[in-house]
């Protein structure tokens, strides 16, 4: 996830706000239009954020512990 390298912080923040408004089913498109930002960019960043969380949801504590157990040094 290279969002912080590809986009300025304010666009990432707007994408997070956009995700929150969609989840709460608020119609905030007019508010975003007042900011004069390219909504396509905001939506693309939002999708990247959601994809990141979707892909990393599969990594559970159990899988992490199993991986650590394999790395333990046994004399």
Sequence-ordered SSE layout with sheet pairings:
Elements lengths: L2 H4 L2 H15 L5 H6 L4 H18 L4 H11 L4
Helix pairs in contact: 2-4
Q: Give average pLDDT, whole number.
A: 82
* Total number of helices: 5
Structural class: mainly alpha
Indicate the overall shape: elongated
**DSSP E strands, number:** 0
Low-confidence stretches: none
Largest sheet: none
**Helix content range of the residues, please?**
over 70%
SSE order: HHHHH
Number of individual domains:
1
Assembly form of the protein: single chain
Task: Evaluate the radius of gyration.
Answer: 18 Å
The proportion of residues in beta strands is under 5%
> How far apart are the first and last residues' alpha carbons, in Å?
38 Å
């Amino acid at each position: 996830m290279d969002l912080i390298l590809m986009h300025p912080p304010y666009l990432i923040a707007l994408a997070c706000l956009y995700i929150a408004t969609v989840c709460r089913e608020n119609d905030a498109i007019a508010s975003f239009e007042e900011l004069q930002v390219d909504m396509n960019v905001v939506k693309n960043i939002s999708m990247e954020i959601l994809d990141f969380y979707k892909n990393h949801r599969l990594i559970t504590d159990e899988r992490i512990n199993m991986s650590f157990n394999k790395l333990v040094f046994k004399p």
